[in-house]
Write a structure and sequence with these properties.
mainly alpha; transmembrane helix; 13 helices; G protein-coupled serotonin receptor activity; Rhopdopsin 7-helix transmembrane proteins; about 75% helix; 5HT1D_rcpt
């Protein structure tokens, strides 16, 4: 998301133009050193861009080709991967050239398209994290009711709202940039002199979503821990089937299938010796207990994954949006332009981190991804 400008000329200008009161002079960077710096920077940013594009493409392919992953929750994850892929192929390559050369030579139209794409896709990526957290929150706090409403159509509506908000944030700068269309364009940045728009865009794209994410994650964490602590202990007295079934009610992950219920009901009400009936009850109770242990492990892992995603998101985007907001509100404040470039690419890096987190911490994705790799190697 490009809302400001920096320049590699900073290196040469600060090294050659020293104050009059300074008695020592620092030799300017040689052309070969500056070229080596530009090449190294280009390679580094190109690697990040390529890795981001490939990882998101693999997530999309894994979801598309694996029928087991065709769920509303994974639809939201796939939509996030599509958004991050768009950042990788439509925003980051041009940003590499602009970050390294700091000379815009592609004209006003391409500049407008690039800036709009930058703001739209980065905002959509951030807002996708919100709808994924919201979906998870509803699933864990209102499992029985939400499971009936958790459909592909509902997920599609959530994604649609994300894109409407993202486009509404990226469009306003196009209206006041047209007045300068006839001038020679040397830089391509959003005009941060419009304080009202800066506040609107930064709060809409980052600060409000971040507050929402923190609140949702906090409630998810409390609900998950509450469930985990209610799990029956592995040692101690045997729990009856009725007790275990009752404690599992309301969980989106822990539920007995109808066959287990029918089997337990049949053996407990039908004829047979008390020893046989008790044996069946004990076996069923052990089965439910093991299922609840697996449920607890999944709850912990899902909550941990969401926490890592939230932490990575804040680390990647907070410096950029703090810088942008401070520079817009404080005319006397100054940030190192090179530091701003680092903040910008740190935000882009979030599009690479998201798919890595999902494939590394989600067993279903990991297994499906491994199967996809093996299939591609054999074919």
């Amino acid at each position: 998301m490009e809302l400001n400008n920096s320049s590699l000329d900073y290196f040469t200008s600060n090294l050659t133009n020293t104050p009059a009161t300074t008695t020592t002079t620092v030799p300017p960077w040689s052309e070969s050193s500056l070229l080596a710096l530009q090449v190294s920077l280009s390679v580094l940013l190109a690697v990040v861009t390529l890795a981001s594009a490939l990882s998101n493409a693999f997530v999309i392919a894994t979801i598309f080709l694996t029928r087991k992953l065709h769920t509303p929750a994974n639809f939201l994850i796939g939509s996030l991967a599509v958004t991050d892929l768009l950042v990788s192929i439509l925003v980051m390559p041009i940003s590499i050239v602009y970050t390294v050369t700091k000379t815009w030579s592609l004209g006003q139209i391409v500049c407008d398209i690039w800036l709009s794409s930058d703001i739209t896709f980065c905002t959509a990526s951030i807002l996708h994290l919100c709808v994924i957290a919201l979906d998870r929150y509803w699933a864990i706090t209102d499992a029985l009711e939400y499971s009936k409403r958790r459909t592909m159509g509902r997920a599609g509506v959530m994604v649609g709202v994300v894109w409407v908000i993202s486009i509404s944030i990226s469009m306003p700068p196009l209206f006041w940039r047209q007045a300068k269309a006839h001038e020679e364009l040397k830089e391509c940045v959003v005009n941060t002199d419009q304080l009202s728009y800066t506040l609107y865009s930064t709060f809409g794209a980052f600060y409000v979503p971040t507050i929402l994410l923190v609140i949702l994650y906090g409630r998810i964490y409390v609900a998950a821990r509450s469930r985990i602590f209610k799990m029956p202990a592995s040692s101690g007295k045997r729990f009856t089937t009725a007790q275990l079934i009752q404690t599992s009610a309301g969980s989106s992950l822990c539920s007995l299938n109808s066959a287990s219920h029918q089997e337990g009901h049949h053996h407990s009400t039908g004829g047979g010796s008390p020893l046989l009936v008790n044996s069946v009850k004990v076996k069923l109770a052990d089965s439910v207990l093991e299922r609840k242990r697996l449920c607890a492990a999944r709850e912990r892992k899902a909550t941990k994954t969401l926490g890592i995603i939230l932490g990575a998101f804040i680390v990647c985007w907070l410096p950029f949006f703090v810088d942008t907001l401070v520079m817009a509100m404080c005319e006397e404040c100054w940030f190192d332009p090179v530091l701003f470039d680092i903040f910008t690419w740190l935000g882009y890096l979030n599009s690479l981190i998201n798919p890595i987190i999902y494939t590394a911490f989600n067993d279903e994705f990991k297994q499906a991804f491994q199967k996809l790799i093996k299939f591609r190697r054999c074919s």
